[in-house]
Amino acid sequence: xxxxxxxDLMAGICDMISPNPTYDISFxxxxxTTGETSELFAxxxxxxxxxxxxxxxxxxxxxxxxxxxxxxxxxxxxxxFFLDSxxxxxxxxxxxxxxxxxxMYYLADKYLLELLKDSVIQEVSSRKMVTEKVIxxxx
Length: 139
Prior knowledge:
Strand content: 5-15%
Radius of gyration: 16 Å
Shape: globular
Order of helices and strands: EEHHEHHHH
């Protein structure tokens, strides 16, 4: 059975959980509280087709030489959902808390993904704010 979040074009691309021989880039994360590192794997071509920032980073005049690429401005959870969106998987915005939505918006803005930014804004706008959640949303 195929995943309903994948379209036919992406149906053959594996999840970004463990190394796969077709991956040609990885992103590393250091958990500041535990000191543990983790990695997410991807395909440069898929990322470059989805984001002009990745296009310049991987195929521009000054190509990225690091592999893995250390990611210091995002959690691995947020970056995984972000990468999923580039693989045409719909991120579960409705189940995300405000903090994770903020991280998703930041990544969408940084990598120039206007549709994802719009989706995050729409999700945040659709939520009924209660006093207890205002502080969470502001962080």
